[in-house]
Amino acid sequence: MMQRMSQSEIIGGLVALLGEARVSTSAPDVIAMSADLWPKAQIWKMSGEVERHPPDCVVWPGTEAELSAVVAFCAEHGIPIVPYGGGSGVCGGTVPIHGGVVVDVKRMEGEVEIDRASLTVVAPAGINGQHLEDRLNANGLTLGHFPSSIMCSTLGGWLAARSAGQFSSCYGKIEDMVLSLRAVLPTGEIVDTEDRQSGDPDWTQVLVGSEGTLGLITSARLRVHPSAKHRWLRGFRFHHLHDGLEGMRQTMQAGLRPMVFRLYDPLDTFIAMNTGKSTDRGGLIDLLRSSSSSKEQGSGPATRLFQGLARAGMSGGLAVPAALNRFAQALPSNCKMVVGFEGPEEAVRIQSERAATILRREGGEDMGAGPGEHWLEHRYSVSFKQSRIYQAGAFVDTMEVSTTWDRLEALYEEVKKAVGPHAFIMAHFSHAYREGCSIYFTFAASRGAGDRAEAHYERIWQSALSAVHRAGASASHHHGVGLLKRDAMVEEHGNMLRVWRVLKDTLDPKGIMNPGKLFPDGAGGA
User: Fold this and answer.
1) Does residue 402 sit in helix, strand or coil?
2) Which residues lie closer than 8 Å to 179 by C-beta, 6 or more apart?
3) What is the rounded distance in angstroms from the CA atom of residue 109 to the CA atom of residue 310?
4) If residue 231 lies in a helix (H) or strand (E), which one and from where to where?
5) In sequence order, what are the beta bridge partners of 338?
6) Secondary structure (3-state) at 339
7) What is the pLDDT of residues 283-299, one digit of tens each?
């Protein structure tokens, strides 16, 4: 990058473009925009370092033209730009490690244009995900995209990170929904990928998933669907994880399209069955906060697990993760599955009957509608529970990885083995497709003090990502890459990074767009 302007010069130039009200250097704004919800950044804050990487300023353009002017100004002067949507990312994708200008796009809400004849919608990148779904619902439509962050994330963030919603096995991920988009390139030029010429690459899919490193998405045209009139939800219990996975595989390869399809490992299943709470991170937090009042009685491993955690307290119990994981391995091998279908009544009936037949054939025991309905009612609860575990002197994180069906169980065992000595770990399987599936690992560990917490966090992730690569899997499915996984991308993509390097250097020769994210600076160079 060229010689940077001073902060006062940067602010002066941006005020001239947007006005004083939409350029800020105030402490609340700078602190809020210095990180997303990456747990490592939360560790920084809990250790008293509230803004390790502050931006020079924060700006709020309101139109595509204003955004173009901001980007052109920053390009002219070599000023880093970091796009910011809802701030709900968990991979450090918005941390301004080189300072510069954080561009918050939430003012760019604009109009939502619905085409009922074509079943498409054009929506601005800054719109809140739940607001978009509400507008569609009011017109009898749905996008079918329901990430757990829907109430605090934006369409632009979904596109930037290739987001997946909870109904992805039915409706696809966000890259399957987007038809075209408009974006501001690193020069300030505005492009519309619908204006694709014969022989051009698919610029939509080049920009989707680029995490702001190739430009800023301003709006997108997406497929939508009529709102479902009928829904069928069920729970099944399997005696072994392998049987549940085989049921998932055969269901997907039979051509069925469940709206939800989730299989919980024995520990995650135990938490749900013995606490009555939702699973995933929320269930783990409930377990770690539980006390001897647990309804689990007797002297088996389940009781000892609860009582040991109660005596030690959350932070103390997590200081011995290997012991906790050994207790977990002694739990019953039962695994709970949640499956559901939605759509026209006859289609739901045919698909649900076929799925139930397959799942019973693989050893699944029908638990009735209750588990599925409970999941649907509480599916967003996890988003409001994470702070509790930090307050108790620990941290929690999730890792979503994916691979083909033939490698899935080996991936699960490899990651558990690698992380087990360092953190309490559990998992569920979701986002299932014909070819394979994603595993969503949750781990928790004692935070400790000062630099030790950060070092411990990095040790866990290095162990986990190394295990993923050994298993021949992908290190990211839908959370994105950001800072957290960027070094792992070098090993995962190998020589193909040269293609990325040419693309980055061509579109962003000054390297101003979200520098240091997705891939390490200079990755793929000669």
Assistant:
1) strand
2) 120, 194, 204, 220, 221, 222, 223
3) 47
4) strand 230-238
5) 235, 262
6) strand
7) 555 555 553 344 444 44
